[in-house]
Every structure is written in C-alpha cells, then in structure tokens.
Amino acid sequence: MGFYGELVFGRSQGSLLQAPVFGSAEARRERDIAQWRRAEGWQTVQVAANVLREEPAQVLQEVVAWTGAPACVVSVADSDYALLQGLAVSGEKWDTWLNLDIAAAMLAEVPADVEDTSVWYASPQAEQAEDRKLKVLDAQVPTDARRALAWAQAAGYGADVSVARVERALRARSTFVEDLLDPILDELGFPTAAPRC
After folding, report:
1. Are the C-beta atoms of residues 92 and 61 closer than 8 Å to each other?
2. What is the DSSP secondary-structure string of 106-122?
3. Collapsed DSSP state (helix, strand, coil) of residue 1
4. Measured distance CA(51)–CA(64) in Å, rounded
C-alpha cells in the first residue's frame, strides 16, 4: 500500500510544522509526519491523510498567509498519482497532475449508464477514454510549466530556467509519485534539498 496524504512545501525561518494548519505537537504521531529542508528556509513536510483537517487548497492558503512566501501542496493518492497545486503571495494559482498516465486512468469519465465499473475498466472503451484524458492532461503541461516557472520566479528563483526543462519534469514518471516533487523543485531553480536520513 502506498502513501496517501500531502506534501507541503514552503519557506519558514523556523520549522514549517509550527504553522497553525499543522495543529498542535501533541496531536501528531511521528510516523505520520516527515520533514526535510533546503537552503534559505525552504522545507517540505509530508503528512499522512489523517493529519490535516483542511482541504489541500485551504492548507495552501494558510501556509502562504502564515509564511508570507509562495507554497505548494502535493495531494498524493496511494503513491500512484498526485495533484500539485501552487500559490503565490499575489494569489496567483497553478496546478498540474503528476504521473499523467495513471492520473488519466483515474480521471477518465465513466459513462453514466455503466453499471459495473470493474467490467468497464477492462474494456476498449475505457482505454479510449483514458487515452483521451491523457491527451487533455498532456496538452495542459506547457501552460502548467509556464505558470509553475512564474511561481518560482515570484519566489526569486528560476530566472535562467527554460520552460522545456520544467515540462520534462512535470511529465516525468515515478513508481512513487511523491518522489517527483524534489526533482520538479530542482528544475524550477529552488535550492537543492539536503539529503534525507
């Protein structure tokens, strides 16, 4: 079974876990939370699905308000696929799906008249619906990459980064989708993450 939960990336002089959105220290269990850092106060907090009480978009707003810096939240489903949402201090938002092929399979529209989805998912019609959804998601990547780069630039990074590099990072595939966040942040020009213990 994979990871269900959120990765929250933001900037804080102290621990990002001090943000009110993460609740009190007494309510946390060590196995539900991990944290790693980058230079200049940037850090990622990984929290299991049962930790946060707010929806990811609300968590993102609260982190940006508390830190006064851009932030992003990656909502991970069973380590298979994820929705990455970013927010700048100006209120500019962007989002993109990660592990596009699996996201397309999960987001493909099932016809209303289908009674047994287990049969439908094994059908050629499901494969066609997934292919159509993948084309839609993939066509959005260039726009998502430009918006992600503008977000990084609003944070003071990514001045010399090409959109093509960001597109490649957003189209990357990983067995554990949560492992895609650090390479995406690297491509956007954020300080390199410290090795995780």
Report:
1. no
2. HHSPPPTT-S-HHHHHT
3. coil
4. 19
* Under 8 Å between Cβ of 76 and 91: no
Consecutive H or E run containing 7: strand 5-11
- pTM of the entire predicted model: 0.92
Torsion angle, CA of 185/190/194/197, rounded to 10 degrees? -20
* DSSP-derived 3-state class of residue 97: strand
Distance of CA 180 to the CA centre of its chain: 9
DSSP H helices in the chain: 56-67, 100-107, 117-121, 124-154, 163-171, 181-187
Q: Answer whether residue 134 shows pLDDT above 90.
A: yes
User: pLDDT at residue 26 above 50?
Assistant: no
Lowest average pLDDT, out of 9-13, 109-113, 149-153, 162-166, goes to 109-113
d(CA 92, CA 154): 10
The structural domains of the chain, with segments of one domain joined by +, span 5-187
